[in-house]
Design goal:
By secondary structure, the protein is α+β, with helices and mostly antiparallel strands. It has a single domain (about 1-80), classed as Outer Surface Protein A, domain 3 (Alpha-Beta Complex). It has helices at about 1-5, 40-50, 55-60, 65-80; strands spanning about 15-20, 25-30, 35-40. The chain has a three-stranded antiparallel β-sheet. Helix 3 (about 55-60) crosses helix 4 (about 65-80). The chain starts with a helix and ends in an 8-residue tail after the last helix.
Length: about 90
């Protein structure tokens, strides 16, 4: 689990239109023509995923988000093409 704490996710910026609606986010991927609705937890994690913070640091900034919850979103974000590719 320690290696996952050191992972620095980076939210994808290109190809998305982002629209906040109350405490959720609507992301439109116009390249895939697909809409994603992020609930408040996922929205907060995605917004803090700027590539400069580890999963642990994102969790530390929001005590209600345990590291396991932040880490659990990673494969979902990756599958939905909401994270930039590493490197």
């Amino acid at each position: 689990m320690q290696q996952h704490r050191n992972y620095m996710p980076k939210a994808r910026a290109d190809g998305l239109i982002v629209q906040p609606i109350e405490n959720e986010l609507v992301l439109y991927n116009y390249q895939r023509e697909f809409v994603h609705l992020l609930n408040p937890t996922a929205a907060r994690v995605w917004q803090q995923s700027d590539g400069s913070r580890t999963v642990s640091e994102i969790s530390d900034r929001a005590p209600e988000l345990p590291v396991s919850s932040v880490h659990a979103l990673r494969p979902r974000f990756r599958f939905a093409a909401l994270l930039s590719r590493p490197g």
